[in-house]
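So, read this over?
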Amino acid sequence: MAELIFFSGTMDCGKSTLALQMDYNHRARGRGGVRFSCNDRAGGSVISSRLGLQTDAVEVIGTTDFWDEVVRRRTTGLKVDYLICDEAQFYSPEQVEQLARVVDEMGVDVFAFGITSDFRTRLFPGSQRFVELADRVQVLQVEALCWCGRRATHNARTVDGIMVVEGEQVVVGDVATDADRDAAPEQAEGSHPVVGYETLCRRHYMRRVTAHGANLMASRDQLLPFDVDACLWHGTS
C-alpha cells in the first residue's frame, strides 16, 4: 500500500540528506520517482544538503499541481512509483491534499520532508496539513544542537545577528556557521540587513539569546554567581 509520510524536524537535522538517500535507495531497486523542492537555499530546481550533496529537482511554485505532474509523466510512458518532496513546509494546503490524492488514487508513495514550525513557533500551513493527513509523521532522530550544546527544538531568525519574532513567514536567508556567529555582523551603510537562521533550545529561544548574543555576553565581565543571560544583551528587547 502506498503511503504519505511526513519527515519533520528542525534545521540541521538531516532532512534533505535523508531525502537524497531515500531517492537513491528507491532508484537502486528499479523504482521510478520524481524529486520536488521549494525555495532551497542553493537556488531553484535543486535539493541540497548541508553535507554538500546536491541534485536537480522540480521547483514547486504556487501553480504546481502534483496530480497533473504525475499524470503528465505517466501518459508519456515514464514510471512514477514515488515522489520525494523536500522543503515541504512551503507547499500550500491544497498541494498537500493533491499529494494525498496521488497516494490514494494512483498508488504513488510520497515522502515529504520539512520543518514543522516557523521562527515564531507557529505551524507552517503546509506542515499543518501534512500532520493532519499523513499516514505517518516521523520526527528525525538526528538531533540538531543549540549553541549551548542542548538539543535544539526551535528555528530562530536573525537580522544582523539579532533574533526577531516578527515578519513574513517565508524569508530565505543564510544559515550562519560557527565562524560567522563568532563575529559581529558589520553592515556597510545603505546595505540590506542580513537575514540568517539558527537552531536554538527552547530555553535560549524563549530568552532570545543566539550564538552571536552569547558571544557578546561572554566577552563582558560577569561577576554575578547566577545565569542572567536573558537580561544582559540589548538584542533581547
